[in-house]
Design brief:
Blueprint (H helix, E strand, L loop, with lengths): L1 H4 L1 E2 L2 E2 L14 H25 L5 E4 L8 E5 L6 H8 L6 H8 L2 E5 L4 H12 L4 H17 L7 H15 L20 H13 L1
Parallel strand pairs: 3-5
Antiparallel strand pairs: 1-2, 4-5
Helix pairs in contact: 2-5
Length: 201
């Protein structure tokens, strides 16, 4: 109802979980944001390249206070809650579902220590496996914190375990751990099977 109401008592209603949120910043704040945008542009491009079509775009955020990143939907797309509701529908339009669900924007927080360190590591080596793993972990954790559901929880758990090993200085033998790495791309076979099963349901 609120999505269709648009305005109440002379005030425009805007969802903070959607892109295009304007917080009426001062000129100094806008100038600082432009500088941060230019500084983090290479990282935004790298994140988009790694995640591919999982996100529509990656931008520097003006709304985040503490979190490293969030996922927001397009202005006319579904919110996370609406997406859950539509997924639960028995007779849903799958073509519309895939279109509406794909419009996610990843917003990164330039003042967060994790994002700042990730930018530093990416500048040294963009092909670093750890950098790519961290990007995927940030994406998957932001799915959860933004109210979406994980597409592959086992893959997420494997990445977490590998990061725990790094934190505990447990290193795999050279060449031994590569086979256990979860793929950075989609896992098509399993996903398609699940989608077909959902259609039958």
């Amino acid at each position: 109802m609120v999505q269709q109401l648009k305005e109440y008592d002379g005030k425009k209603l805007i969802s903070c979980t959607k892109e295009g949120l304007d917080l009426d910043n001062t000129e100094d704040e806008k100038k600082k944001q432009e500088e941060l945008k230019a500084k983090f542009e290479p990282l935004c491009k790298l994140i988009k390249d790694v995640l591919g079509d999982k996100v529509e775009k990656v931008v520097v955020s003006t709304r985040i206070d503490e979190s490293p990143c969030v996922l927001v939907t397009s202005e006319h797309g579904w919110t996370a809650n609406m997406e859950r509701i539509m997924k639960a529908q028995a007779l849903r339009d799958n073509s519309m579902t895939s279109y509406m669900m794909s419009k996610k924007t990843m917003e990164i927080n330039p003042s967060n220590a994790i994002v700042a360190e990730l930018r530093g590591k990416a500048e040294v080596d963009q092909s670093d496996k750890t950098v790519k793993d961290l990007i995927w972990l940030l994406y998957e954790t932001s799915l959860l914190t933004s109210g979406f559901s994980l597409e592959d929880s086992s893959q997420f758990a494997t990445r977490i375990h590998r990061m725990i090993k790094l934190g505990l200085s447990i290193f795999e033998e050279e060449g031994a751990g590569d086979d256990d790495l979860p793929p950075l791309d989609d896992a098509p076979a399993e996903d398609n099977t699940n989608a077909k099963m959902e259609e039958i349901d």
